Amino acid sequence: MPYPEQLKELIKVVESTRAERVARKKKNEEVPFLSLDARTDRLKYHPDFKDEGRHELSIGPSKGYKIAHEMAEVLEAHSRVNPADVDLSKTDYETDVLILGGGGAGTSAAILAAEQGCKVIIATKLRHGDANTMMAEGGIQAATKGHKDSPYFHYLDIMGGGHFNNVPELAETLANNAPGAIKWLESQGCNFSKYPDGTMKTIHGGGTSRKRMHYAADITGAEIMRTIRDEARNHSDDIQVLEFSPAVELILNEKGECAGAVLYNMETEEYITVKAKSIIMATGGSGRLHIQGFMTTNHYGATADGIVMAYRAGVKICFLHTVQYHPTGIVFPEQAEGILITEKFRGSGANLVNIEGQQFVNEREPRDVEAASIIKECIEDGKGIPTPTGKVGIWLDSPMIEDLAGPGTVEREFPGKFILYKRFGIDISKEPMLIYPTLHYQNGGLEFKNTGHTSLPGLFVAGEVGGGIHGENRLMGNSLLDIIVYGRIAGKSAADFANENVNGSKLSLEHVVKYNEEADKAGIAKDKVAPMLLPNYTDARTREKQLTSHYVGNMR
Amino acid sequence: MTEVKAVEIKAKLIPIYIMGKKYEVPETLTIMKAIEYAGYQYIRGCGCRGGVCGACSTVYRKPGSYKIMSGLACQTVVEPEMYLTQIPFYPAIRSTYTFEKLTGKPEEVFDLYHELFRCVACNACSKVCPMDVEVMDYIAALKRGDIKAAAEISFDCIQCGLCASRCMGELPQYHIAQLARRINGRYLTPQAEHLKTMVANIEAGRYQESLTGLKVMDINMLKETYTAREMEPATGGEDWIPKENIGL
User: Fold this and answer.
1) What's the fold here for domain A5-30+325-439?
2) Among all residues of chain A, which has the CA nearest to that of B29?
3) Does residue A371 contact residue A325 with C-beta atoms inside 8 Å?
4) Between B47, B190, B211, which is nearest A299 by CB?
5) What pLDDT, on the 0 to 100 scale, is given for residue B5?
6) Distance between CA atoms of A378 and B220, rounded to whole angstroms?
7) Which tens digit of pLDDT belongs to each residue from A258-267?
8) Those residues with Cβ within 8 angstroms of residue B21's Cβ, 6 or more apart along the chain or in another chain
9) Measured between CB atoms, does B156 come within 8 Å of chain A?
10) Does residue B231 lie within any of the structural domains?
11) Of A119, A338, A501, A534, which one's alpha carbon is 20 to 30 angstroms from that of A157?
12) Known catalytic residues of A?
């Protein structure tokens, strides 16, 4: 729906201060960035710092670690299947490399593993490519312009954004392999936005010291995903994709190595077994857990499945005490609630302004600082803009971009968002957007090394499911980068493992039996099961009447 | 959960017909949220929920009209008496090819997709496109051999397959467009020189010493270095050069 009258009145306030703000921007007079101390102070308003939102894990390899209730709940749960019911004497599929997850990380890993001569199976919950990768808009970071940038500055920015707690080797590998990742994508035919001579267009993102955000209009992730998915499809002899068949447990062998997985065909409700020489966990994030009740930008299947499975198999978790809230999610119109508005709007100069039309924060602070500032402005200072559905938001002044870069820029540079708003009767080249922080990224995840290895031999990690690269807060453009860099690394490492290692033969789910026993001892109810697989948004009154489709957790 | 809460708002209930069956749903919801409100739990037909993945293409008709409309279930707001169904999958043919062996000649596209010339220019594809892509125009561009134009016109394609579902020439438009975009990105657009140089410099170890320096640095010193790092101005051009050449 278009903006109602009361909001149109408030937009006039934004318009009244716009000319002055544009003039300041043109003169490079910015709202000063917060000092490191001031950042720490501001972060008190961040949801991560709400102690009542978390509790200590009662079971598993990271027992005692305090994380959000919603994430802890899926770890403190029983298996979906009774391990005794699964016949491991014969397996339904056998392959060299099994990849769990068909997003950007899984797909780039598959291409690399196939290049090493391996047979690959990708098992994915939804369709191949249904992943947060597809939804990433703003860009992909890489220091590709040597006259002003290098992995040195990229590394500094990654560490600063992550509060200097990142695992240094993981951050270093990310920065060092970034230009190579972009080059690979370019060679795959990815349509990056370029100048006529082939020079890549690059802009700033929150927390970047150099303009190193490469992009493909405002659908960078979709362009990357559809390109590499197309390439994977060209290798269908070597890369088999099992859609709507998420993994629910890992399988180990008698040597204690990871040797396969139990999949669940969601359409026929069968459990299927796959034996593999190595396994790559690339299941992505967890926005659909709706941590602390926040709306989310994530795709439908983001429910932390990979963390649950690997945790049961003994892999520790890290940095899950922090969750990334993207500063700018749509809060009005309601139909589009939670949808991401790319940081590129702010990178292109759009200010964040309050109900009085005033700026209250530099629009290019790291994401956690930016989100905390918006929450403070709305909740603490009461200068947010009330929406007709009883929520509160802040203006993102997109029409400024037209004043800074010329008429037509918004439609040309942000075609996806321009059309989305147009459908609701809002022209974002003339009217600002109403935004509020939205659950966006799982900063932490499974512990792993910069070679993709985990503590469990035969299990490799790539993408959002891993933790440590981004420390306590990821910068914009480093997750598309992460999935390509670490997807390729995991693909190579898993292929090497598959090619070199003599695989065990006796398959086992004993680790699941043990985990279930530990859960029993901790008093966790038998009917609490994970992974969740899909969220349920059915109206509560309807759900009460679904008498024969009893949901156990989220399982029928 | 916010999404569950959203449907508890006291909005007026309106009737919609999901595959011909009537349900009362709040008038403010998207088709996707309305289907969930009615009691379905999606397995197929739902993906990103943000209008870019092409999983939830939906066709519908309004009472008294013969016209078949289309939209994405996650983006389209319900209307009273709407008759709808989703088309979560379409079995269009896709040609397999070796990307490395292509050169960018139009004949390569013709060879992989002979169907291209079955287009009768009826424009049903453009009319049904939920992303307002001018599908027929890019097919016409390809027939002329203009791969670049086809890549640009098709850029917003989300590969939902609705175009193919309506095509009387039975073209797999969205797969042909994918091929055109990849050819454009690799063979018809100049490759970035600065990228090649940077990758070569990294491989030669040019930055390793300065980077290792940061890695072993004491945390307070690292924080100081971070705070002191020179920021490229927001409005600077491509030729901006930092004052110091440390780390470069």
Assistant:
1) Flavocytochrome C3; Chain A, domain 1 (3.90.700)
2) A335
3) yes
4) B47
5) 39
6) 33
7) 999 999 999 9
8) none
9) yes
10) no
11) A338
12) 326, 346
pTM for the model = 0.93
Mutation choice for B interface testing from A209, A335, A551 by most B CBs within 10 A: A335
- Cα B22 from Cα B30, distance rounded (Å): 16
Instruction: Tell me what the pLDDT averaged over chain A comes to.
Output: 94
The number of folded domains in chain B is 3
Per the CB < 8 A criterion, the answer to whether A240 and A120 are in contact is yes
What is d(CA A476, CA B18) in angstroms, rounded to the nearest whole number? Answer: 39
Three-state DSSP class for A184? helix
Instruction: Give residue A554's pLDDT band: very low, low, confident or very high (50, 70, 90).
Output: very low
Domain limits, chain A: 5-30+325-439, 83-322+442-507
**What count of residues does chain B have?**
248
Q: Is A83-322+442-507 assigned to CATH 3.40.50.620?
A: no
Comparing alpha-carbon positions, the chain B residue that sits nearest to A533 is B43
**A212 pLDDT higher than 50:** yes
Residues of B (66-125) whose Cβ lies below 8 Å from A: 75-77, 94, 96-99
Q: In 3D, which of A531, A448, A441, A434 has the Cα closest to residue A485?
A: A448
pLDDT for the residue numbered A550: 52
Stretch among A1-10, A316-325, A370-379 having the lowest mean pLDDT: A1-10
B73 and B137 co-located in one domain: no
Is the pLDDT at A538 greater than 90? The verdict is no
Pair of tokens at residue A482? 């992460």
What the block records as the tokens of A83 is 């391990």
**Overall residue count recorded for chain A in this entry:** 556
Q: The domain spanning residue B15 has which CATH number?
A: 3.10.20.30
pLDDT by residue (tens digit) across A57-87? Answer: 999 999 999 999 999 999 999 999 999 999 9
Cβ contacts of B176 on chain A, cutoff 8 Å: none
